[in-house]
Amino acid sequence: MEVADALILSQPLPNNMWSWTLTSRMGDLLRRAQQEFGSRDVSYTPLGVEFTANGPYIWYPGDPADHNVVIRLNSTALTDVPQACYQLAQECIHLLAPTGGSHANYLEEGISIVFARRYINEHFGFSMDQPNPKYSEAAQLVEALLALDPEAVRKVRAVQPSFSQITVANLRDKVPNCSAELAEKVLRTF
Fold first, then answer.
1. How far apart are CA 176 and CA 70, in angstroms?
2. Helices in 54-187 by DSSP H: which ranges?
3. ω into 56 cis (within 30 of 0)
4. What is the domain range of residue 178?
5. Tens-level pLDDT at each residue, the chain (190 residues)
6. 12-13 and 17-18 as β-strands: parallel, antiparallel, unpaired?
7. DSSP labels for 147-185?
8. Dihedrals φ, ψ of 149, to 5°?
9. CA distance 151 to 145
10. How many structural domains compose the chain?
11. Contacts of 153 by beta carbon, 8 Å cutoff, 6+ apart
């Protein structure tokens, strides 16, 4: 099986620097996600990245009490560095507030798409679209929320860190100009 070297082999660069791999990108993405959307739940330990035929998603290996979490990317991205990074960026959002397997809402999924698009545009210089209409809708809802207040997610996660536990009241309290309709749509179970 072929794997793009850039995903796993760090190469020396000028000025005592090293090239990015999935591991170093994961660290950078987690830092960025926390800066933009609030702290991650540190009771979970991110173990790393692996590939599987039915990814991307996060997986909780072993005993649930251990709170270990692995990012699984789709094996079709083994030779596609931008696609692997897009998937990695999406899944890093889910590391902010892992649920142990319960379903995400439109807010969490939308943030994952918006965040991944930004990352690809910044690091690879092109746009990557989400072909699934449900994910695109989630991203549009999040973009509408962030247009009202770029700090909306950070503010609401300061009072309720778990995306799946955020209520319409939580969201509207922290973003008063958010309509009830938008709040209800963005907080629906995905």
1. 36
2. 81-94, 106-124, 133-148, 152-159, 168-174, 180-186
3. yes
4. 5-11+18-186
5. 899 999 999 998 998 889 899 999 999 999 999 999 999 999 999 999 999 999 999 999 999 899 999 999 999 999 999 999 999 999 999 999 998 777 899 999 999 999 999 999 999 999 998 889 999 999 999 999 999 999 999 999 999 999 999 999 999 999 999 999 999 999 999 9
6. antiparallel
7. HH-TTHHHHHHHH---GGG--HHHHHHHSTTS-HHHHHH
8. -160, 110
9. 9
10. 1
11. 36, 37, 38, 107, 111, 142, 145, 146
Token pair 């902010």 is at which residue? 96
Residue recorded with tokens 């791999």:
21
Token look-up 């309509």 returns 179
